[in-house]
Amino acid sequence: MLSDMRTIALLFTLAAAVSTTTVLAQETRFPTNEDLRHTRSLSQPRLAPDGDSVLVQVADATAGGGHSHLWLVDIKQNAARQLTYSPESDKRGEHNGEWLSDGSAILFLAKRGEHTQLYRLPMEGGEAHPYDMKIEPTVDASSEPDAIPPSKEKAEAKKDALPIDVEKFYVSPDGKWIAAVAHDPQTPGEKKQETEKADAEWVDHDPHGSRLYLFDTATGKLTRTAVDPDVESVAWKPQSDKFLVITEKPNNAGDLGPAKAAWLLATNDTEHPQEIKQIVATVSQAAWSDDGKRIYYHAQAEQDAPPGYDDLYVFTTGDGAVKNLSRDYKGTIGHEGPIAVDGKVLQSVQNGTRVLVARFGDGTPEALKFNTPVTTGLNTNTRHNGWVWIGTGSTAPLTLFFAEKLDHAGHPLNTPSAIPAKWTETPSQLVQWQNEGQTLEGLLYLPPQAKDRKVPLIVDVHGGPTGAWEDSYSPLVPFLLGHGWAVFRPNPRGSTGYGAAFAAANKNDLGGADFRDIMTGVDAVIAHFSVDADKLALMGYSYGGEMAGFAEGKTDCFKAIISGAPVIDQFSEYGTESGSWYDRWFYGKPWEHDADAWKQSPISGVANAKTPFLLLQGDSDVTDPLGQSLEMYRALRQMGVTAELVRYPREDHGPLAGGIFGNPSPEPWHGFDGRQRIVKFLERAFGQ
Q1: Domain extent listing, the chain
Q2: Which residues lie below 8 Å from residue 582, measured CB to CB, with a gap of 6+?
Q3: Beta bridge pairs of residue 197
Q4: Which among 27, 68, 295, 327 counts the fewest CB atoms within 10 Å?
Q5: Rounded-to-integer distance, Cα 474 and Cα 462, Å
Q6: Counting runs of H as helices and runs of E as strands, what totals does the chain give?
Q7: Assigned CATH for 10-34+421-686
């Protein structure tokens, strides 16, 4: 296979302490398809103001509805109890839990009626009750002069206050204020229009938006701020007298170019927001320093990189200076926001396949040590008398950790188990190889059968392409290993975790050198591990699904190819996806660069298609719409290639992927069905 590629050098190390021989000595118990309907997830740990307990969000298993709830973990007793419960009417459950600054109550969002409301649950006991947040509607499209049907109400008539659906909220450090983000409520007149089917949508002209309100916790007064929609996030100054608001221009303005802005508001003057013009239009994820003199934030990297690939910056409020704290950083700034502590800033980062936290300041960033290869959700309180986080690794399901200090090893806290039973532990192996001037990495997982014979290999390609495989726990991997198949997860050029230049290395070359990176990695695995070169399959979701499409037209070494929610045709994708700014960075506007766009469309190679191809697609996908899979399915059928297309109603891009990968989902059977079809498709291909 790929005989034209040069010989490669292979370096590999074990990425976990447990050896393969130890695994073989254990009782073999790999998860079944049904088992993956019973996994849970942990997220958003919040350390209590006194440092004695942790609030954590737990998502029920798919088999239980996938609802989220809030649990309280007593650190000293190391015991957990569920705090909140969902009525049948609430399909999502309680989420976005936060402490009040004095620890007297927790706040959370839930939809226990017609609206998503902000609830307060007192810690001394009693039921949770929603705050009464109502406004006079800012927008009432039904009262416009040309409204259909014409309104019979007088335009000057006073409008009744309406409840708002809270999307996000941010509690001030002193607990006196809550900044709440809510979309404009539907008025009775607008609801009447909808009922009468006067529901034409003028694209990119919606007068409604997500606005910012300030709620006084003592008086219950709700005030609309003068910040324009759409509001993305809020960061409170530690002294609680000011807050930073990040907005994005509404009605898809971001599709034309970066459209965000940072505004400064005072709690005693919400009518006059001040724009911080030194902060660029790609800003996100902000936090204040302890003394309130600096603002740390994410924004697009200075070096040429795909949209959304960020650097960490600091803005000094006194002189308006901006400094890039992560220039030339060899890893990737993570998606979690910064945490300011003692004059420096903690920031989640990705270094290769590991995710950790680094301390940034004036000198070289300092990587902090944690218990597991992947650390997320780091959190502390205003006293900084403890730290909590979620840790995971190839043999370690999601676990909540606590440490009194950051330089201390964390100890695990008891929470509901992320997996329903102890499964056979298979540590990842870090594989490194060379291709076309790049040093590349991937994670390899071998089933017990590989000790005695060569086994089939599944090449699993990640999405993005600005994404990466991390050395975390993935329920899908042991599920596939349980069928006797090895799994190889490569990080080709274009992946995160290896610096901005590496992330940009497949610009205007999708399906080119990144595809060859993957294939040379496959050659390396075949050459050095017990893998059957005659039984290879490739699968991927999103950009991984797109890469599956490229593989269909570029090689016949695979016995089966599985593609989830792919891009197949850059021309039609560009015109129908939810936003084109990301794709435009890679190859420009397709009508101006038609040759480049076509070369980077998997369908351009469909004339060479031979390999059986399975497509898994969500009907409601707006990231990579249904039409992409329909195009590939039709093309393959007309080329006489075995092709199967499975559509999943109601599913958007990310949720369908999560369900298939074995994460909690509100759809009870879609993930199960997807995994079942994958297995049957591979069994036929491998002759099993």
Answers
A1: 10-34+421-686
A2: 306, 307, 308
A3: none
A4: 27
A5: 13
A6: 12, 40
A7: 3.40.50.1820
Distance (Å, whole) CA 348 – CA 335: 7
Quote the CA–CA distance of 183 and 208 in Å, as a whole number: 7
Number of CB atoms found within 10 A of residue 518's CB: 26
Which SS3 state, helix, strand or coil, does residue 292 take? coil
Find out whether 284 and 310 touch, Cβ atoms under 8 Å: yes
Relative orientation angle of helices 670-686 and 653-660, to the nearest 10 degrees: 60
**Residue 543 burial (10 A CB sphere; 0-12, 13-18, 19+):** buried
User: Can you give the C-alpha Rg of the chain in angstroms?
Assistant: 26
* Rounded distance between C-alpha atoms, residue 570 and residue 20, angstroms: 43
* Beta carbons of 189 and 142 less than 8 angstroms apart: yes
The pTM score is: 0.93
Q: What is the pLDDT of residues 475-495, one digit of tens each?
A: 999 999 999 999 999 999 999
Contacts made by residues 573-580, CB under 8 angstroms, sequence distance 24+: 573/624, 573/625, 573/628, 576/625, 576/627, 577/622, 577/623, 577/624, 577/625, 578/622, 578/623, 579/252, 579/254, 579/255, 580/255
> In the numeric block, which tokens belong to residue 19?
């050896």
- Residue partners of 452: CB distance under 8 A and separation at least 6: none
User: What's 546's DSSP letter?
Assistant: H
